[in-house]
């Protein structure tokens, strides 16, 4: 039982290290949300921080359309970031050990 607990603690430490590495990768990853056929582009990182906003000059004269498209691009970027984050967590979970002795 002592060996099981020791192995559990070692594996938990490894998992924690893997989670930190995964989180660091996600923060550095950039995802771009698009609206209006590419007239608006919002680039975010894995923490949902907006890094860049690119707006076509064609949209500068119509504030209402511009606002709608910015919201759409942000929502698109958020969905993409969430997908990337979910995939990374799933990949991490695949490598997690089973601790049957705890049951």
Write a concise keyword list for the protein shown above.
2 helices, 17% strand, Ybab, Chain: A, 103 residues, alpha+beta
The fraction of residues in strands falls at: 15-25%
Distance between the termini: 13 Å
Radius of gyration: 21 Å
What's the CATH superfamily of the domain at 33-103, by name? Nucleoid-associated protein YbaB-like domain
Number of DSSP E strands? 3
CATH architecture of the domain at 33-103: 2-Layer Sandwich
Task: Please provide a brief summary of the model.
The protein has 103 residues and is of the alpha+beta class. It has 2 helices and 3 strands; from the N terminus they run αβββα.
Q: What does this protein structure show overall?
A:
With 103 residues, the chain is an alpha+beta fold. It has a domain of 71 residues: Nucleoid-associated protein YbaB-like domain (Ybab, Chain: A), CATH 3.30.1310.10. It is 57% helix and 17% strand. The chain is built from two helices and three strands, in the order H-E-E-E-H. A three-stranded antiparallel beta sheet has the order 1-2-3.
Record the SSE blueprint.
Blueprint: H1 2-28, E1 30-35, E2 40-45, E3 50-55, H2 63-94
Antiparallel strand pairs: 1-2, 2-3
Helix pairs in contact: 1-2
